[in-house]
Each structure stands twice: as C-alpha cells, then as structure tokens.
Specification:
By secondary structure, this protein is of the alpha+beta class. The chain is 18% helix and 44% strand. It has a 7-stranded antiparallel β-sheet. A 4-stranded antiparallel β-sheet has the order 1-11-13-12, with helices on one face. Strands 7-8 form a two-stranded antiparallel ribbon.
C-alpha cells in the first residue's frame, strides 16, 4: 500500500458508475436535466435517494426552488443526449427539445418522466445538506417506473476492461457492461 494524492485515490475507485439524471423545472415550467454521478440510496422506509449537485450549476438553483425532481437512468442509446445535458446549461438550452427525448407526465410531482429512460423515480425534496462546493438533495421516492425493453444502462467508465465504449468527450467516457 502506498500513499497517493486524494485525486489519484478517488479516480481509482470512482468508475465504473451508473449514470442517472435529475429532471426538475424552472419558474416557467420548462424541464431542466442534469446528469449525475453522485447519488445513493439512503432509506428503505420511506424510500429515499440522495443526489449531489455543484452550487454553480443552474439545476442547483432549480432544485431549491422546485423542491421536486425525477431521477432517471438513461439507456445505452442515450449517450449523446446525456453528453449534451451535461455540457449545456438549461439557462440557454431547452434540453428536452435539443435531445428529442419524450417527456411523460408524472403522477405525483410536476417535473416529467423521460420515456426513453430505463428507470424513472418521482421524488419530493425532504432535506438538503451543504458539503463544500456541492449540496446533497434528499428526495423521498413517491412513484417509480421501469421500461419494458432490454436496453443496457449507461455507465461512466474509465479505462477498465469489460465494457463497450459508447463515446464521450473531454472528461466524459460512456459505456455499457459487455454482454
């Protein structure tokens, strides 16, 4: 065991990870989508999930204001749209229109589901915690949906073996588990 800088240690254990997206609304009711790497299940009863969003992100402001979000897991065929959502701001771009994804009405909250996603969870914000340059948003899951197809989930990968590379750009590299 050797001592290394924190970033090197983080990079060693950070990937692969499933990518998910948070969908919330602006004051006009326009959906905003942010891809996330940091999320975790936090409670079984009631079911809760936590996501972490940088203070500087537009979605951070909207999550505080809307207090509701859909947590959605994209399939392997959605990598280009995920990249667009992660590199463009909702202040400037209607991400639903730009990706061509299909919004579906939620049943318990206002932000929409994304039809093309493998899993959608409707969440109501119950708590926040500031952690340095990010805020952890804790949502109670009030409804869940799964697709009926057999697509693989999109994941963020490094240089590991065993994954099909699906593209990316800059610091983003997407893949799916090899079948």
């Amino acid at each position: 065991m050797k001592k290394v800088n924190i970033q090197e240690a983080k990079e060693r254990c950070a990937r692969p990870e499933r990518i998910c997206m948070a969908i919330t609304l602006d004051e006009k009711g326009t959906p905003d989508i942010i891809p996330l790497g940091w999320k975790m299940w936090t409670s079984g009863e009631p079911p809760m999930v936590a996501i972490s969003v940088a203070h500087a992100r537009y979605s951070h402001q909207l999550l505080h204001e809307c207090k509701e979000f859909v947590l959605a897991w994209p399939g392997e065929d959605m990598s280009r749209g995920v990249l667009l959502c992660g590199t463009k701001s909702g202040r400037d771009v209607d991400k639903i229109a730009a990706t061509g994804w299909t919004p579906l009405p939620s049943t318990e909250i206002r932000p929409p589901l994304i039809e093309e996603c493998s899993v959608n969870l409707e969440c109501k914000l119950v708590s926040t915690l500031d952690t340095g340059d990010h805020t952890i948003f804790v949502g109670e899951i009030v409804a869940g949906y799964v697709s009926e197809d057999d697509r693989r989930m999109l994941i963020s990968i490094g240089e590991e073996e065993g994954y099909d590379s699906l593209g990316g750009r800059g610091g983003y590299r997407f893949g799916a588990v090899r079948r």
